[in-house]
């Protein structure tokens, strides 16, 4: 039975792709953009670019309205109480670095930062480096047999010395949702701050951050069908007020003299310099686009792709899935075959997948693997993409084995 996406035609890249790459299966790295996002970018620039929050002139007011409108859309999307809880950054990575610098003075030597064994480098290295700067202990929560953060071990390891917990909502390698609610509760009980890396999770379903109750949540626009160069740091108002400023310059300052200055609170206090105006507007357009889709149809489509992806992969002898993914994303290895050779042969056949360590080197090492191939689908993906992929995989494995 064909499994077509009613939204495919909204994404002009697929027409352009057909020459060089028939099949794009790397959406967890970055997603294609719907025409509505491209239109919003063009509309903003063609209508007259202007800086925000600075000018009284008409183009400046138009830009400010659109930029702040995007902030309000993101707040609504995350069910934040106020748009002032949304800080624009360049992406999830920058949001996490902002936190690691902005919270630095909270820590005293010997205190703990707790992360997990499955973190992306973006949610590992800023904390590792902070731990080195402040002489802190970086505690790594182990995973259970399913590849999820082990709650029994977490209960043991999250301690009164824990000042911060930073964990992924959804693993970019294993495609599994992490048990956030109990983890956040354990951290809260110890009075620790909580950070959720939503870079992958934000793409799959709507999340009510007010209900989730984390202090901070970060994501990138480009995985959520928006432009690159724009990301979000959400914070609870009280948590945001604890952040120290980390980049200095125009617009983040309330009062400046030669030898002293007073800084603005969030969000503008953390958006030094000219922000990414067009791309913020583009991210707002991506949310409008997603809001306009039938959520039930979207969930059903993703579930069908997920089922077909896993069933298809399981038919290959010697192919081992890394865990049991819960979304339409699967990482795998094949006995006797190097992941880079496989992805190369797939690429030669017009199939784009990702191979390597997926910015999670310690996780791959822990799994005893030099790397893995990852296939990740988007709302525009179709059954035919998978059929082409399976045929190409079959051919590649015939050549390699
Ligand atoms: N965390 C996770 C789980 C990710 O998958 C990614 C992107 N691969 C990031 C953080 C970093 O996102 P970005 O590169 O857009 O800053």
Automatic annotation (TrEMBL):
Enzyme nomenclature, EC number: 2.8.1.7
Cofactor requirement: pyridoxal 5'-phosphate
Top-level taxon of the source organism: Bacteria
Keywords for this protein: Aminotransferase, Pyridoxal phosphate, Transferase
Pfam family, any one: Aminotran_5
Regions annotated as coiled coil: none
Cited InterPro entries: Aminotrans_V_dom, Aminotrans_V_PyrdxlP_BS, Cys_dSase_SufS, PyrdxlP-dep_Trfase, PyrdxlP-dep_Trfase_major, PyrdxlP-dep_Trfase_small
Ranges where the Aminotransferase class V domain occurs: 23-389
Entries under CDD domains matching the protein: SufS_like (cd06453)
Catalytic activity: (sulfur carrier)-H + L-cysteine = (sulfur carrier)-SH + L-alanine
Family: Belongs to the class-V pyridoxal-phosphate-dependent aminotransferase family. Csd subfamily.
The protein's name: cysteine desulfurase
Organism for this UniProt entry: Azotobacter bryophylli
């Amino acid at each position: 039975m064909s499994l077509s996406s009613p939204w495919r035609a909204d994404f002009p890249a697929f027409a352009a792709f057909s020459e060089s790459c028939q099949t794009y299966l790397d959406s967890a790295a970055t997603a294609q953009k719907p025409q509505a996002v491209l239109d919003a970018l063009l509309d903003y620039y063609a209508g007259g670019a202007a800086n925000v929050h600075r000018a009284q002139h008409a183009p400046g007011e138009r830009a400010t309205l659109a930029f702040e409108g995007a902030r309000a859309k993101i707040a609504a999307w995350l069910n934040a109480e106020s748009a002032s809880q949304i800080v624009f950054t360049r992406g999830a990575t920058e949001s996490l670095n902002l936190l690691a610098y902005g919270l630095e003075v909270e820590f005293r030597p010997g205190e703990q930062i707790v992360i997990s064994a499955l973190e992306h480098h973006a949610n590992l290295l800023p904390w590792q480096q902070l731990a080195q700067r402040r002489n802190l202990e970086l505690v790594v929560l182990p995973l259970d047999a399913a590849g999820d953060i082990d709650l029994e071990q977490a209960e043991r390891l999250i301690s009164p010395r824990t000042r911060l917990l930073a964990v992924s909502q959804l693993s970019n390698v294993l495609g599994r949702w992490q048990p956030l609610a109990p983890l956040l509760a354990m951290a809260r009980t110890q009075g620790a701050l909580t950070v959720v890396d939503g870079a992958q999770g934000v793409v799959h379903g709507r999340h009510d951050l007010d209900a989730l109750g984390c202090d901070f949540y970060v994501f990138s626009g480009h995985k959520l069908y928006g432009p690159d160069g724009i990301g979000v740091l959400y914070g609870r108002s009280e948590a945001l007020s604890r952040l120290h400023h980390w980049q200095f310059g125009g617009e983040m300052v309330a009062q400046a003299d030669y030898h002293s200055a007073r800084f603005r609170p969030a969000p503008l206090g953390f958006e030094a310099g000219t922000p990414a105006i067009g791309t913020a507007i583009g991210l707002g357009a991506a949310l409008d686009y997603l809001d306009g889709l039938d959520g039930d149809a979207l969930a059903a489509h993703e579930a069908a792709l997920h089922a077909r992806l896993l069933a298809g992969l399981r038919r290959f002898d010697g192919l081992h899935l890394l865990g049991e993914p819960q979304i339409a994303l699967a990482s795998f290895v094949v006995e006797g075959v190097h992941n880079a050779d496989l992805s190369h042969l797939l690429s030669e056949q017009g199939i784009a997948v990702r191979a390597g360590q997926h910015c999670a080197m310690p996780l791959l090492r822990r799994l005893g693997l030099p790397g893995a191939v990852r296939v990740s689908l988007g709302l525009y993906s179709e059954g035919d993409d998978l059929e082409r992929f399976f045929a190409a995989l079959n051919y590649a494995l015939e050549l390699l084995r």
